[in-house]
Amino acid sequence: MTTCHSLMAIIEELKSDAQLIERQSVDRLAQLVHSASRVFVAGAGRSGFAARAFANRLMHLGYSVFFVGEPTTPSIRQGDLLVIGSGSGETASLVSMAKKAKAEGANIATLTIYPDHSIGKMASVSIRIPGVTKKSTEGSGKASSVQPSGSSFEQLSWLIYDSIIVDLKALSGQNDDQMYYRHANLE
């Protein structure tokens, strides 16, 4: 068997970056999700795909969750939580959502490369992910990547979201059968 060197390089990069994730921030986000009346999740582009997967798993756990932009998404209110995945922390549509959520009294959480940018400044909790993005280059904590710009951020976002799901599964006392019961059956 021949090893796929590109795959192993990506895994090593993610492993190295994962060691820089602050556990307290991840734990705080899990607590905010668990205590929120409803959870709203947002992200654009590939970060949005990871965020959608997070919303899907939250639904499997029985949380009241909505992906922002879907026709059935209600208005956000006090007691709700908005989770935003944004590498740059400056994506105009996501900054606008954060401002609206803040004005309505909702909590905000973000996964970002730049917690000191606009979305991070409004957030109750920011999970800083080392990353490389063309949208902003200063202070990312990472000079380069073996992957195209943004990929390591998006992949590590997905893994952080999944780690939060593991924690919430234990916190909520759910098991795989209960989660599977909520799985889509109109396929």
TrEMBL record:
The keyword Isomerase applies. Belongs to the SIS family. PHI subfamily. It comes from the Bacteria. Pfam families: SIS. SUPFAM superfamilies: SIS domain. The keyword Nucleotidyltransferase does not apply. InterPro entries: PHI/rmpB, SIS_dom, SIS_dom_sf. It comes from Izhakiella australiensis. One of its GO terms (molecular function) is isomerase activity. GO terms for biological process: carbohydrate derivative metabolic process. Keywords: Isomerase. This is 6-phospho 3-hexuloisomerase. Residues 29-170 form the SIS domain.
